[in-house]
Amino acid sequence: MAKEIPKDRKRLLKKLKNRYRLVLMNDTTFDERFSAYLTPINVIAGVVFVFLVITAVVVGTIVLSPLKEYIPGYSDTQTRLNAVSAAIKADSLEKAQAQYVQYFESLQRVLNDDLDESQGPGLASDSLQRTYEGLDFSVSEEDKRLRVEVEAQEQYALSTGSPYSAESIGLPGIFFFTPVRGVITSSFDFTSGHLGIDLATEEGEPVNAVYDGTIVMASFTSDGGNVIQIQHPNNLISVYKHNAVLLKKVGDQVKSGQSIAISGNTGEFSDGPHLHFELWYNGTPLNPQEFIAFSS
Predict the structure, then answer these.
(1) Do 174 and 247 form a contact (C-beta atoms < 8 A)?
(2) Termini Cα distance of the chain
(3) Taking CA 169 as the corner, what is the angle to CA 178 and CA 163, rounded to the nearest 5 degrees?
(4) To 10 degrees, the CA torsion angle through 217, 220, 225, 227?
């Protein structure tokens, strides 16, 4: 048997379903301009719908615009990016710290001679007690050919005649490009103050960078004429003087063999078309002939 609806609820439902007429009319002529039939249920539904639309518009405007950054407690995009970056760095530091701890523990065991088989065959003490009986240490034909090839390739590398070796400068086996085509007319002489070499060449020859680097000077001086200077890696500096024209400016990046100037005869200390070339390391002049293979 169906449950009977209370009378109070019936009267409420009836009132909500009652139809009302909304009329707009001219107050003077009483002409009817607009009329509509409404019920309380329709009015409530309409108000709720309008409220939801306004709420969606306001929330969307705040979320999709920078206005959200003005809400207290809401972090901006840059703050979140900084937090993520800090978390990544912290994780990397934690891993690095764990590696350092493991390294120092291993080093401490080595210093205390506390090695055992459980640490691996590479650290076992008896691994040092190995015999090499039966091994053939004679040079094979392949090794001989390889040594000949290496010696031929290294004849133009940095030599050991300088106070600084190639290893001490940090450029072992690096090939320096010849700065200009010409003949050496004046060699390096530290005692007389001639801190470079002079290369006699025809005027208009391209002057090339001997190695990769950055132009740190490109100007005119009274004694050196048009001078250009390059800062190379490992605190190496090369200087090119008496140029007719400079092709690069300060700050330009250059590659080995790239033209940086045109040879000429500028400056008080120039008595003919030539290039005065200097090579410096840590503030000390080097003899370029010991580092660069010049044609005779």
Answers:
(1) no
(2) 123
(3) 85
(4) 10
